[in-house]
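Example 3.2
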Amino acid sequence: MPNSNDAASTVIDPVYVTESLIAENIDAYLDQHQHKTMLRFITCGSVDDGKSTLIGRLLYDSKMIFEDQLDALAADSKKSGTQGQEIDFALLVDGLAAEREQGITIDVAYRFFNTEKRKFIVADTPGHEQYTRNMVTGASTADLAVILIDARKGVLTQTKRHSYLAHLIGITNLVLAVNKMDLVDYSQDVFDRIVTEYTGFAKSIGIEAFVAMPISGFKGDNIISASPNTPWYTGPNLIEHLETVEVNSAIDAGRPFRMPVQWVNRPNLDFRGFSGLVATGSVKTGDAIRVLPSGKTSTVSRITTLDGDLDLAQAGQSVTICFDTEIDCSRGDIIALAENPPQVADQFETTLVWMADEPLHVGRAYWLKLGTQTVSATVHAPKYAVSVNTMEHIAVKTLELNAIGVAQIVTDKPIVFEAYSDSRTLGGFILIDKITNATVAAGMLNFSLRRAQNVHWQATDIGREAHAGLKNQKAAVLWFTGLSGSGKSTIANLVEKKLHRMNRHTFLLDGDNVRHGLNKDLGFTEADRIENIRRVGEVAKLMADAGLIVITAFISPFQADRDMVRSMLPGGEFIEVFVDTPLAVAESRDVKGLYKKARSGELKNFTGIDSPYEVPVHPEIRIDTTNLTPEAAAALIVDTLLGDA
C-alpha cells in the first residue's frame, strides 16, 4: 500500500476495475492506480439542464454506485413513477437538494470516480444566478468545464454567464454538452442550431475552441460509447474525451519553476530547508535559485521528501529544498530559478468576482491572500463592471454580490506575482474581510501598474527618530473616536492645550476642519467615510514621521478603517481613545442640530441613526463621559500618553 503521506500517492478508492487484475496481481493494480493522472472538471449551465443527472450517470457507468445505492435509487424512482432502467441519478448527487433537506450549506458538491485510464474529481454547482460564487469556487481548480444546454431550451443567459466565468478563470478545455437529446428525437438540426448560436457567442468573449457533443445523461447516449441514436455525430463520447484531454498538471510542468514556501523546516541545527508544493516547472540539485521578493540568490544543495532525497522535483510534488548558503527565506516567499524569476509589485489591475452579501467598500483595507503570501490591500473604485448578459462595461461605484468588475488594488508591501493568464498559483487571489475573516472576493491579477515599478521610496538622512528626538518627545497619534456629540473635539482640544503648556509639539486634526479643505470633495456615504479616514491616516502618519504628537477627532465609525490607520504606524504609536457616550446622551446635546435633521430624514447616512457605529474592540483608552468631566478626561489621557512615553 502506498504511503498516504507521499504527495505522489493517493488513497485507493473503491472503483470498478478488471477483477482478474486484482486477483492475479494486486501490486500491478496498485501501481497502475497510483500513476493515473487526475482530471478536475466542473459541470455548469442553467437550472435543470441536467448537471446532477449527468454526474449520476458518470458514477453509475464507472461503477461508483453500488448495489445498495442502486436499490435505494430504484425505490425513489418507483415512488416518482418511473420504472426499470429509468433511475433518477440526480437524487444521489444533487448538492442543492441536500442543502434543502439537511438545512446545511454545500457550496460545491464534489464527486470522485475512476476509469481504467484516469481519476476524476467533478464539481457539481447550482445553476441559479444567486449561486454564481459557488460556480467560481468549483471552477477555480478545474482543468475542464462541461457546459450543459437543455436541447429544448437552447443557449440561455446562465449558459453565457457560466461560459464567461469559465473563460475568465482560465479554463481552456470546454465541452458543450447538448443534453436531453432524447426529448428532441435526437434531431441533428436542433443540435447544429444550438452549436451555431453558441459558437457566435463564444467568439465574442474570446473562447477560441470547444468540443460539442449531443448527449442524454438520463438515457446514457454518448456518455461512455457512441450512441446508435446519433449516427450523424462522429466525435468522441464524453468519457473518451475526459480520459484524453490534457490536464493542467501537464501544462504546469512545462512552465518556469515556482515554489511558494509554506514553512521553514529546521528540526536541528545541522538542517535548514524550505518546504512547499512545487507549483510549476522543475528544479534539480545544483540549480541557481532566487528567493523573492528579497531577490537573494543561492544554489540548491539538496531536495528531500519523506521518502528520501530526489535529484529532481517537478510540479505537483511536495518537497523540502536546501541551499548551499544561508540566505533569508520564510513563509510566503517564492523560490524560482535565478535566470527566470516572477515579478514583484504592489499596485495592480485586477478582475474581481464579488462573493459577499455586503458590497465592496472602496478604500477599506482587506487581507489579500495569494498562495502563501498574505498582505493588506485596498481596492480603488471599480473602473467598470461587466454585464454577463450583454458583455457591456457598466460604470459602477462598488461591486455587489456576484458582480464581476475591473479595479485597481494597492498592497501595503510588494508581492510576488504573475499574470493570472500565466499562472493560477501566482495570479489568483482572494480578499478576506479583516473583521469577520470571511472571503469576500476571488480575484485575478491582470498586470502590475507601470507607476508601481517606477515610484520608489526615497531614503532620507534625517529619520523620524531624529525628528522626535529634536523635540524631546515620542511621536504618537491620539485617535479620538465616538458618536457625534460625544465630546471628542472638546476633549481633544483640552488635551492639546495641556500638552502645549508642557512644551510638547502637537497638531490637532479635527473632522469638520479637514472637510473644509483636504476632504471637501467627500460626502458621507460609506465609501466616502472610508476614504476620509484613509486620507487623514496618511496625513497623521506624515506628521508622526515629523516627530509630532498628532491628535485627531473623527467619528470614524468602522473598526476596519481605524485598524487600517493603526497598521500605517509603528507598534505603540497609535492610541485609540474611545469617547464612550450613549446615543441618548449625545443626541440630547445635539449642539449642531444634526440628530434632529437625521431623525426628520433631512440628513442621510448619519452615524447612530441610519448608519452604524462599530464600538472599538480594544481601545487603549476608554473615556466614559457620563462619569468624567472633559477636564478630567483630558488629564487622564495626557497622563496615560506621557506615562507610556
